[in-house]
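[job 4471] stage=fold_predict status=RUNNING
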Amino acid sequence: DNGYDISDYQNIMDVFGTMADVDELIKQCHARNMRIIFDLVLNHTSDQHPWFVESRSSRTNPKRDWYIWKDGKPGGLRPNNWESIFNGSAWEYDKETDQYYLHLFSRKMPDVNWECAELRRELYKITRWWLERGIDGFRIDAVSHIKKKPGLPDLPNPKQLEFVSSFDYHMNVDGIEEYLDEFKREAYGDLDVVTVGEANGVSADQAVEWVHEERGKFSMIFQFEATNLWDKTLGAIDVLAFKRIMTRWEKSLEKSGWNALFLENHDKPRIVSTWGNDKEYLRDCATAFATVYMLMMGTPFIFQGQEIGMTNVRFPSINDYPDVAARNFYNLQLANGVDHDELMKIIHMTGRDNARTPMQWDDSLNAGFSTAQQTWIGVNPNYVRINVAQQEKDETSVLNFYKRLIRLRKEHDLFTYGIYDLILSNHKQIYGYTRTSDMKRAYILTNLTGRVAQFALCQGLSSSQLVLTNLIEPVPEHKDEKSFKFRPYEIRVYIIDHQKKESHHHHHRKDEKTKRTTDQTELNTTDKSLTKLQKIASQNLEHISHHPTEQGQTDIIAALAEATRQALFEAETSKRRSITVDQEKVTPDSSEIDLENESINKKRQRQRSLVLNLENVTPAMQNDPSSLNHQCRSFTCLTSPKPSATGHHADSSSDDDENKKKTTTTAKSEEESTDTSENDVDYSVLNDESIQDFSFTSAREQAKKRILHDEEEFTLKQAKEKK
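[job 4471] inference complete, writing structure tokens
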């Protein structure tokens, strides 16, 4: 699988160079104040690795237990019905020892046995060896698969399939934490290194234990909930689902963890060709997707070619695709009678090699990637118009937009430490969110579709606050604008600096003082009115007690219940009315904070706690019927069970009446969609079920539907033209 079959952990594959080259690379990186991390593969090795060669030599070999061997079932059947991630059985028969070995991936990549303490110690030693050589950390490949379900039982098979997708029995299985804790303790826990786990199957709720600042296993993990959406929505992005997933991860790790942010990797097709539109809006969609993820809380990862908008490729033959997963799929389906052309269309859409074609540096031979007559995989023919050299000269290019985006992130620590909050959560086109620190708030607004989108905010925004847009022509002047109409894939980033509102703050604090006085008066009035209610109830009770009847007892109970209900209701209402979490109210005087010398952890804790103001927020009453869904909405700190603009977006609190309005205009044409909802903070979208899919099966099914749909449209178009 393109080098993931490790045959020697302490050497370099000859086609890539030598150990001396690696030492020079590390040295030169460090000389430029750069860091370098390696890919560490610990779930499996090559079948050519000396360990496996020894292991398969006999059943009594000392390294036999370093891999997972098992007898077949009676009748020559495999040990269980697990399917390999690369299709077919996950077991390979070894004739010499008459047993099967497990391979979750290629049969050339047998899984090592993490139950074996001797093997684990050897893996830790190798990890330490590389760190001592000077590298600064690892991306740990397929780490969530190292623990298998004890006993390796068959999976349920109601459809009577030959092999069953086996993720549930080898992905993030209970007990994996013990191995990961030991790995950290023995290999890198005492060193200042970066570790990123490829953690397929780890949910947002579980991720805290994986990346917790103190007790976590890794610095970050790659999560696949978001990228797995393309399996479900091939050819279009489900913006609501994307928002739901990304927000869940952002809020889950907000207090004590850290996100690894990415859109593309070596296992997925290109983002502009799947979720975007690489024909009409290549530049626009490439820059829109860059913006939406790179300004979130976490460390952004950019996959090679993503920064120039590289697209999917359409090679004519299966022989043009080195990917073992694509070849296995092709051969199995061809044997089942599926047509070659249909299979190639599916591979064009879903194949991993879409992301693996050579980097397009310029318009020379092989896109400047190599001077060889033939590269290891074909070059995308569009390299003549999509390449680095060309985009470096074009100020409006995707590449230069990425540079502006990175510069913006580095210039404002708001994008490192600021709290993330979702806005416009129910809008089907706009992904909007804010990043808030104690002094600033950024609004990141992106249209992730190829249609015009309209929306409204509670907060008015002005041209003077606009710091980034992907439009080539200037954005029209505007001041305190709340209603917006975005072009396809348009993005804007605004930053509001609260320090520039000092006079407003003084006025606001005076208003707050007046408001508190008013609230106290209302509370006193409420107390008086409650006293009157109690007096009336008392008089009624006294009257009934002097005329005891069977009906009177019932009336007494009813009166008591009514008086109690009214008292509780009025008390709770007044308490809610008197509690307002106000961002500006809790903003400290900047002179009290030593920003220059403040530690990173202190800065992070302060900015988070100030915005959330966790200590001052009263939870919703558990006996309040309107709070039944409160626990589902675990990502908002607001007192109201249904979040509103109050609190995180208190800048607009003066528009109380206006902000309560909620209007939604249905799109009148496919080209334009409108959502002018002004209740722009609503986490109800998070309650939907998450999308979990870890194989290529769903993507291929979607591809078949897409191909059929395209063919029908083409037929209709031809018939129309003929008519």
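[job 4471] summary: The mean pLDDT is 80.
[job 4471] exit 0
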